[in-house]
Amino acid sequence: MARMTMIEAVRSAMDVSMARDDNVVVFGEDVGYFGGVFRCTQGLQAKYGKTRCFDTPISESGIVGTAIGMAAYGLKPCVEIQFADYMYPAYDQITQEAARIRYRSNGDFTCPIVLRMPTGGGIFGGQTHSQSPEALFTHVCGLKVVVPSNPYDAKGLLISSIEDPDPVMFLEPKRLYNGPFDGHHERPVTPWSKHDLGEVPEGHYSIPIGKADIRRSGSAVTVIAYGTMVHVALAAAEDTGIDAEVIDLRSLLPLDLDSIVQSVNKTGRCVVVHEATLTSGFGAEIASLVQEHCFYHLEAPVMRVAGWDTPYPHAQEWDYFPGPGRVGRALAEVMEA
C-alpha cells in the first residue's frame, strides 16, 4: 500500500473524486497552477483542466458564494480557504446561505459543497494563521464539521465529504500535514512514511462521517480529542503511564455520542483536549454531554485542556499550545480526584 503525507492523501481524495464525477470542481486562491500554498492541489489543474481546477480572486465571500451557486446548479465544489483564519469574510455565506438551503427549500435543493481549510497552530504562524474556529461551525444547524488526524482518515473522510449532499467544513490540522506531531516540539517529528496511518489506498474508499475511532484502549480515564490533539493525548498517556483510552472524534458534527458514553461509563473519568481557546470551545459541549449522559458513572469532574483565552501568541506558542505536559497533568489530577 502507498504511504502518503496528509497533503498527498487530501490531494488523492480530490483526484479520485474528480476522476469519478465530472461535477466535482476544485477552486480557491492559488490552487491551480501553483497547487495551493501547502501543495494540496498540485497537479490537478494540469490533469483536469482550468475549468475544473482554477484560481479565484482573494475574496473568501466570493469563493463561497460562487460555490453555493454552483452547488444549486448541480455541481459539487470542493473549495479551499487558504487558512481557516481567512474564513470570516465568508461566514455570512456559510451560515446564512449554505447551511440553510435544504431547509429553506423544504428539501428541493441541497448544497453539496466542501470547504477545506488548514487549521490550528504549531507552525509559528502567529495570530492570523493559527486559529481553530471549529466551534463557530458546530453551532450552526445544517453544517457538518470534520477534523481528520491522519492521512488514512483524511482521504476517506474527504471523499465522504465530497459525496455528501450537504455542506461540510473540512478542517485540516496543518501541523499534521507532514507527520503525527505529538506536541514534543523539541524532538524531531516522525514522518508519515514511518507511521501505520500513513498507509493510504490509492483508489476510492470512504469513511463514514459521524463515527469516532478508538486510538488507544484503556480503562482508567477517557481522553476525547480531535486533530493534532489526538497525537498529543497519545503522547501524554505514554509519558504518564496512565491507562487512558483515547477517542479520536474525527467528526464533530455529527458527533459519535455513543462511543463517548460507552467509554466514559467504562472508565468513570474524562479529559477533553482541544487546541482552540477554552471558553465556549467545543470541549464545553462535550463536557456537558458527558455530564448529562454519564453522571452516575463519573468518579471525578470532567476536565478540559485547551488554548488560552487570548489571541494566538507568536512569541509564546509552546506555552499556549496544549502539549503533553499539560494533558499529562490533567490526567494525573482526574486520577487523584
TrEMBL record:
Record has Transmembrane helix as a keyword: no
Q: Which SMART domains match?
A: Transket_pyr
**Matching CDD domains:** TPP_PYR_E1-PDHc-beta_like
Does the keyword Oxidoreductase belong to this entry?
Answer: yes
Q: What are the EC numbers?
A: 1.2.4.4
Q: What positions does the domain Transketolase-like pyrimidine-binding occupy?
A: 4-179
Question: Which cofactors?
Answer: thiamine diphosphate
Q: Which Pfam families match?
A: Transket_pyr, Transketolase_C
Q: InterPro entries, per this entry?
A: THDP-binding, Transketo_C/PFOR_II, Transketolase-like_Pyr-bd, Transketolase_C
Among the record's GO biological process terms, what is one?
response to nutrient
Keyword tags: Oxidoreductase
* Enzyme class (EC, first level): oxidoreductase
A GO term, aspect molecular function:
branched-chain 2-oxo acid dehydrogenase activity
Domain of life, per the record? Answer: Bacteria
Record PANTHER family = 2-OXOISOVALERATE DEHYDROGENASE SUBUNIT BETA, MITOCHONDRIAL (PTHR42980:SF1), 2-OXOISOVALERATE DEHYDROGENASE SUBUNIT BETA-RELATED (PTHR42980)
**Per its record, how is this protein called by name?**
3-methyl-2-oxobutanoate dehydrogenase (2-methylpropanoyl-transferring)
* Protein's organism: Rhizobium altiplani
